[in-house]
Amino acid sequence: MAQVYHKVDFRLSFIGRASNESSDLMCMHGPEECLGDMIILCAAHLPFPPSSEAYNNTTPVVRSLGFANCLLSSYQKIPERALVESCAMEFGIDFNALNACLSRQDDEDDTKRIGIHGPGEASGLALLRSDFIRNAALGIQTSCTVRVNKKTWCIRDGGQWRDCQSRGGEVSSLVEEINSLYNNGSETLLRQSG
């Protein structure tokens, strides 16, 4: 990411099931996984800088991805407050705003307005539901699926890369693909679903 973050619209998104009959969300590894996913999504959608009154800019990718990696390096401890606070402090994420996003119970109605209203109005629940619905519509069923330019580029499944474009799951191949699209003026989107 360090080589191409300024050329892509990078987004981590998650797979799971969203109930049509209730506000229930189901993650493969249980409620703790759903909570961890919401923490990561909230961090990426907070206004930046934290004191910003405008909602034009969200947390920079290098910060939100660093925060996500910090959490995931100790995933067994998610959602322990000490871990989340430590990672938030390390990557300049406003812990109170993060907590507010996680605590907000808005769901269906909020999904329609994610990113539209002022800072701090999104909810982790709505963000995760939106991810589940979007990824299901795209047919993404495997964590981790890497998409580039709105197409599946590679899938990591069971510790192995599969269904990859070009030279497989090598970083250099992904960087070359992004650079090629960027240099040819393509609107590049890199999304990792997991």
Write down the overall mean pLDDT.
Answer: 82
Low-confidence stretches: 113-117
Number of helices: 7
For the biggest sheet, the summary is: 5 strands, mixed
Task: Compute the CA-based radius of gyration.
Answer: 17 Å
Structural shape = globular
Given the helix and strand composition, which structural class is it? Answer: alpha+beta
State the total count of DSSP E strands: 7
The count of domains is 2
- Beta content comes to 5-15%
Helix and strand sequence: EEEHHHHHHEEEHE
Q: Give the terminus-to-terminus CA distance.
A: 16 Å
Strand order of the largest sheet: 1-7-4-5-6
Fraction in helix = 25-40%
What does this molecule look like?
There is one protein chain. With 194 residues, this protein is an alpha+beta fold. It has two domains: 16-137, no CATH class; 145-193, no CATH class. It contains seven helices and seven strands, in the order E-E-E-H-H-H-H-H-H-E-E-E-H-E. It has helices at residues 31-45, 61-72, 81-90, 95-103, 108-111, 124-137, 171-183; strands at 9-13, 17-18, 25-26, 145-148, 151-157, 160-162, 189-193. It has a five-stranded mixed β-sheet, with helices on both faces. A two-stranded antiparallel ribbon has the order 2-3. A hairpin with a 2-residue loop joins strand 5 (151-157) and strand 6 (160-162). Helix 1 runs antiparallel to helix 2 and helix 1 (31-45) packs across helix 4. Residues 113-117 have low confidence and may be disordered.
